[in-house]
TrEMBL record:
Pfam families: PSII. It comes from Microseira wollei NIES-4236. It is a multi-pass membrane protein. It is found in: Cellular thylakoid membrane. This is Photosystem II CP43 protein PsbC homolog. GO terms for cellular component: photosystem; plasma membrane-derived thylakoid membrane. The lineage of its organism: Bacteria, Bacillati, Cyanobacteriota, Cyanophyceae, Oscillatoriophycideae.
Length: 283
């Protein structure tokens, strides 16, 4: 059976239940709406799950014995935790859950707008939205869009830094209490040696997951945030080098494959952190 390679909405109407967002591959505006709506679903899951876990939380029992998913992360950020790692206030968890539910409604509305009211193809829209139309074979435009993504990721890294250094601090299992990180490690040798598994004067197969103090954790996020924002700005004003264009396949399928590969790599890194690092994921 011959399968058409022209994956447009019209060509695949009878396969929409199977091909997902692929039917929107040539509809930049509707694909944007789908991504915003998907972000809304993620926000809804986070908010609903956090509130559900609050209703089942037993404060005097370790969180890791209760099968909780999100509240341990919120506690590690210093929310609702007192001396000895004891949960003393569950209201922050509830408030954060509600904020996520409200955000999910806004994102959902934005997604529906782009799907049903906005221009199906961004270049046919009005205002600044036309700037973000893309063609899968246009490396310069794809670089611009990548740059904006990197900047937002960098801002997220710095929000974590601000929480640790300014807004209340984060939980440190080494002292079993919440504290401000006032002296983050900025030495690039110390930070980037973790990438090669070099830590504490020796080599370890755990790599980055071998970090054992919050000063290095926050210093690493300062470096990551700075590199992401600088890299994002560079991608916005430039385009891939000629050798990159020759070395990489540039189309929708290839870009999806690169993204999934990066996601898989980070999943393995995260699994190692969860399994072995008690500084970032306290028990």
């Amino acid at each position: 059976m011959e399968i058409s390679t022209q994956r447009t909405l019209a060509d695949n109407t009878n396969l929409t239940w199977l091909i997902g967002n692929a039917r929107l591959i040539d509809l930049s505006g509707q694909l944007l709406g789908a991504h915003i709506a998907h972000a809304g679903l993620i926000m809804f899951w986070a908010g609903a799950t956090a509130i559900s876990e609050v209703t089942h939380l037993v404060p005097d029992k370790p969180m890791y014995d209760q099968g909780l998913t999100l509240l341990p992360h919120l506690a590690s950020l210093g929310w609702g935790v007192g001396a000895g790692g004891q949960v003393v206030d569950t209201y922050p968890y509830f408030a954060i859950g509600i904020l996520h539910l409200a955000a999910s409604a806004v994102l959902g509305a934005g997604g529906l707008y782009h799907v049903f009211r906005g221009s199906g193809i961004l270049k046919n829209g009005v205002g600044r939205v036309t700037k973000f139309h893309y063609e899968w074979t246009d490396p310069k435009q794809l670089s611009l869009i990548l740059g904006h993504h990197l900047i937002f990721l960098g801002i997220g890294a710095f929000l974590f830094v601000l929480k640790a250094m300014v807004f209340g601090g984060i939980y440190d299992p080494a002292v079993a209490n919440v504290r401000l990180i006032t002296n983050p490690t900025l030495n690039p040798v110390t930070i980037f040696c973790y990438l090669f598994g070099i830590a504490n004067g020796g080599w370890t197969p755990l790599g980055m997951a071998s970090v054992n103090n919050l000063e290095d954790v926050i210093g690493g996020h300062i470096w990551i945030g700075s590199l992401l924002i600088a890299g994002g700005a560079w991608h916005i004003v430039s385009q891939p080098f000629p050798w990159v264009k020759k070395a990489l396949i540039i189309n929708g399928d290839a870009l999806l494959s690169y993204s999934l590969g990066g996601l898989a790599f980070m999943a393995f890194v995260s699994a190692i952190f969860v399994g072995y690092n008690t500084t970032v994921y306290p028990r």
